[in-house]
Design goal:
The protein is α/β, with parallel strands linked by helices and about 325 residues long. The chain has a 9-stranded mixed beta sheet, sandwiched between helices. It is globular. The two termini are about 15 Å apart.
Length: about 325
């Protein structure tokens, strides 16, 4: 066994002893499948004959599901509405064997739900035709925010890591994030952040995982090659006061920038002929965070996240990667 392989094995073996709190926007991912039938007479649109419906955990819920699939103890924290989408989300958590005592219900608030209409026959590749998003309106009610803070304090005080998954639906308020940082300072927990729109407000964290487009938007600098990523990434690291950035680059792999270290470019794992990128960012930050919490070096954690990202984009829909899959691909099948 090489030294590098030994480090990866130790990290993967350590997953089961870790507790990760995932706080963020819990999303219900709905897939409606139909077989193309004909063109409508009412409008020049395709008519699909309904075949099946599938509901999956999305957003922060998908990140939590990935942590759970990797064998760690996960504690999801977030808000759902008193509606059908919220009921389905909680039922999916129960079915997967994850706790729901960190989930707050707010009456009158819609649970975020992304509905993807998928077209294709049983023997053909199913393509996404359109996506319909149902989103909550307005901020959390003060009583909801207070309940979330109370559960965060009770459930995250002994966590090895806190993963913040912000999809812009208002769960991670400034007060919630301030509490996350305070709890992490007290316990020494890893704090990682994935934020679609407001990454600069999540400063002082261990790690953040922007993609190339987000890096360009946040810095106003081109990040389409290694030199550009290095320059823009260093600027963002300083702005965030973070220890590291893991920049996802699609078919180009990833780039790891360490505040007090080097920049490492990691080529894509596997093929670049991907099946579905839905939720891939959730998998990447989940593996990266859990590996760091399991005392992997930043380079080892990034390597594991890169492998997991390469695996999950070969799966259809919002998916997870298991610890067994990681071991098999890395040739670690002999470990516990």
């Amino acid at each position: 066994m090489t030294e590098a392989t030994g480090g990866l094995r130790a990290a993967v073996d350590g997953f089961g002893a870790r507790t990760v709190v995932v706080v963020g926007d819990l999303i219900t991912d709905e897939y409606l499948f139909g077989k193309p039938a004909r063109i409508s007479r009412e409008a020049p649109v395709l008519i699909l004959r309904f075949s099946e419906r599938e509901v999956l955990l999305g957003g922060a819920a998908n990140a939590a599901h990935n942590i759970h699939a990797l064998g760690a103890r996960v504690v999801p924290l977030g808000v759902v509405g008193r509606d059908g989408a919220g009921d389905e989300l909680v039922a999916l958590f129960h079915a997967a064997g994850m706790p729901t005592d960190g989930i707050v219900t707010e009456g009158g608030r819609a649970t975020p739900m992304k509905t993807r209409i998928m077209a294709g026959g049983y023997q053909s590749t199913r393509q996404q035709v359109v996506r319909l998003d149902r989103e909550p309106a307005g901020e959390l009610m003060p009583i909801t925010e207070d309940a979330l803070l109370s559960r965060l304090t009770a459930l995250a005080s002994r966590a090895d890591a806190i993963l913040v998954s912000d999809y812009g639906y208002g769960t991670v308020t400034p007060r919630v994030f301030d509490r996350v940082r305070a709890l992490a300072r007290r316990s020494g927990a890893i704090v990682s952040v994935d934020s679609r729109y407001q990454l600069p407000r999540f400063s002082g964290v261990t790690a953040a995982t922007p993609n190339e487009a987000e890096l360009e938007q946040l810095t106003g600098m081109a990040a389409d090659d290694e030199r550009g990523i290095e320059k823009a990434g260093r600027q963002l690291l300083e702005r965030l006061d973070a220890r590291m950035l893991l920049v996802t680059r699609g078919s180009q792999g990833m780039a790891l920038l360490e505040r007090d270290g080097a920049t490492t470019f990691i080529p894509i794992h596997g093929t670049d002929e991907i099946a579905d990128v839905t939720g891939a960012g959730d998998t990447v930050i989940s593996v990266f965070t859990l590996a760091l919490a399991s005392r992997a070096s930043p380079a080892e954690a990034a390597a594991l996240a890169n492998v997991a990202g390469g695996l999950v984009v070969m799966k259809r829909g919002t998916a997870t990667v298991s610890r067994a899959e990681l071991r098999q691909v890395l040739g670690l099948s002999g470990s516990r």
